Amino acid sequence: MQIFERSAGTAGFTAVATVLSGADGSFTATLPPLETNSFLYARAGRARSPRVAIKVAPVVTLVGPAHGAVLPLAGRHGRPQTPVTFTGTVSPSDAGAIVALQRERPAGSGSWRRVAVGRVGEDGRFSFSHLFRTPGAIVLRAFVHRHAHRLPAVSEALSYDVAQADNPSLTISLSPQTVAFGGAVTISAGSPARPGAPSR
Questions:
Q1: Strands, sheet with 125-130, edge to edge from the N-terminal-most edge strand
Q2: Nearby residues of 65 by Cβ (< 8 Å), 6 or more positions away
Q3: Residues 49, 51, 52, 57: is their CA dihedral positive or negative?
Q4: Model pTM?
């Protein structure tokens, strides 16, 4: 019994395994790792099985700040911009594939929107630098589009919090800054809010 394989996008089948069948005619074959979508059939003497298709999805990784970290909010009104960098890999390398950094919005909905885009390099690596302009909890993942006879694939999701914007007009001070256990502390604050407005 022989197993023949053809990778999508190529011509002709190649024998990839030879196995012995059991008394009931069954057999098991272990094939080398497949890197692209492929077609297989078995042949025993003059008998030949129908073709079957195997679809291959790349393995995608996404690396960024530590899981759960607080990311900086993009600067406004002339303040410095602080992009956050994410890197990742695609295996097999899938060079040239389009890869997107996606954000789940709204959180928990299962709906993903692209926030940055790039391409996979010859070494299978990719990177994004992105500014976050809305504070709050976010969930991100990398999505590799279908390419080179492979299925689309996604990385594991990463969760973060984007920091609230700082307001230099809002200040706080303590008096005294060192206090014995049980002692009282006076908190003084300066706020741009109108007089009598509650603090939040």
A1: 59-63, 84-91, 125-130
A2: 71, 84, 160
A3: positive
A4: 0.70
For residue 71, give the nearest of 154, 130, 1 by alpha carbon.
Answer: 130
d(CA 114, CA 40): 36
In this structure, are strands 158-162 and 70-71 parallel, antiparallel, or unpaired?
parallel
* pLDDT tens digit sequence for 101-124: 999 998 888 999 999 999 999 999
d(CA 10, CA 149): 10
CB 187 within 8 A of CB 172: yes
Question: Structural domains in the chain?
Answer: 2-54 (no CATH), 59-162 (2.60.40.10)
Has residue 6 got a pLDDT over 50?
yes
